[in-house]
Amino acid sequence: MASTDTRGGADGAGGASPSPSSAAASANGSPNGSPNDLEGLEAGLDALETHTASRVPFGRLLLDKVLPPVVAIVIVLALWQLAYVLEIKPHYQLPGPLDVWNALADEWYKGTILGVVWNSVSRGALGFAASLAIGTPLGLIVARVKPVRAALGPILSGLQSLPSVAWVPAAIIWFGLSDATIYTVVLLGAVPSIANGLVAGVDRIPPLYLRAGQVIGATGLRGVRHVLLPAAMPGYISGLKQGWAFSWRALMAAELIAKSPELGVGLGQLLETGRVYQDMPLVLGAITLILVVGIGIELLVFAPVERRVLRSRGLIAGAR
Fold first, then answer.
1. Whole-number Å distance between alpha carbons of 258 and 252
2. pTM surpassing 0.90?
C-alpha cells in the first residue's frame, strides 16, 4: 500500500509520465512524433538555397544579350549619319559611317589590316602576360607584408593614377625606338593595376578562411595556392580586367609616339598615319578597330572567367 501511494505521489507531483512515443517526438523536434516532419523542413530549406540551372531558350538569349547592344550600335550609327547629313562639321572633318567603312575596306584589300591588328594584339598580349607575372607576386607581397605595404602601397596607387603616355618620352630616351620602349610603357601601365586588384581581393578575405587554412596545414606557398589566391579571386579578376585596359591604352599611346620602320605598323601607328595625311576616315577607322579589339578581349576572355568565378561562389545564379 505504501508503495502504491509512493507511485501515486510521484505521478501527482510530476504529472502524467510521458509515453515513449512522446519522448521520441520531443527528441526529433516534432510535436506529432513524426521524424519525417523535420526531414521535410530541411528539404524545403535546401530547396530554397538551391539554384536550378535551366537552359535559356535561344530566342530569349538573343533578346536579352544580343539585341540591346545591336540596338545601341544602330542608334549611334544613325546619329552619326544624321550629323554627317546635317554637316555639323565639314565632311573632311566628320566623314560618314560609309566613308569610314570604305577606308577600312581599302586597307583590307591592300592586305595590311590583319597584320596591323595582329601586331598590336600580340604586343598587348605579351605585355599583359609579363605584367601578370610581375604584378601577381608583387600584389601578394604588398598584401601580406606590412612594412612592404607601408612602403610600396602609396607608390602603386600613384603609378596607377599616372597616365601611361607620360612614360613614353622617358622610355624612348632609355631604350630608343625599339620594342623595349613599348613593353616598358605597357608594364608600367598594367602592373600597378594588377597588384592593387590583388591587394584589394586579399583585404576582403574573411580571417576565418586564413585560420582554417592554417589548421589544415595550408601555409606558405601551399596556403597561397589553395587558400589565398582562390579566396581573393573576385578582386583579382577585377584587377586583371583593369590591368588589361591600362595595358591596351598604354600600348596605343606608345605606338602613337614611338614610330620606326623596325617596329612595324600597329593600330597606333595606323592612327597616326591617318592624322599625318589628314585622312579622317582612316583615323576614325583606326579608332573603331582599337575599340572593337578592346571590347572583344573583354567579352571573349575576361567576362567568361569572371562569370565562372562568381558562379562558383554563389554570387550569381546558375548557368544560363
1. 10
2. no
